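hi! just following up on the protien thing from before. the input was this:
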Amino acid sequence: MIDAIAYKFQTGTQCVHLPEKYGTWPGVYNRLRMWAVDGTWERVFTALVAQADADEDVSWAVSVDSTIVRAHQHAAGARKKGPRPASRTITPSAGPAAD
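and the predicted 3d structure came back as:
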């Protein structure tokens, strides 16, 4: 089960596309989801980091990416021609009056 979950994250594949050697995909998906909800992964990660820190195997480096990707003005829904038309005033119809 752990190998199947690791394979899923290493390859970026969906659970549906896991190789048959890992068993049924619903079983893998349900176990992954269940362990995420009940905090199992958080406890495993915390224990692994604590152990690596105690062994001085961790170098704490933080990298922040400040890349900005801007969309073209047309991708943002900009109008194609001229300014937006003024809103029209809505007047009641001149139909027959109710008696």
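The chain is about 40% helix and 0% strand.
Residues 40-54 form the longest helix (15 residues).
cheers
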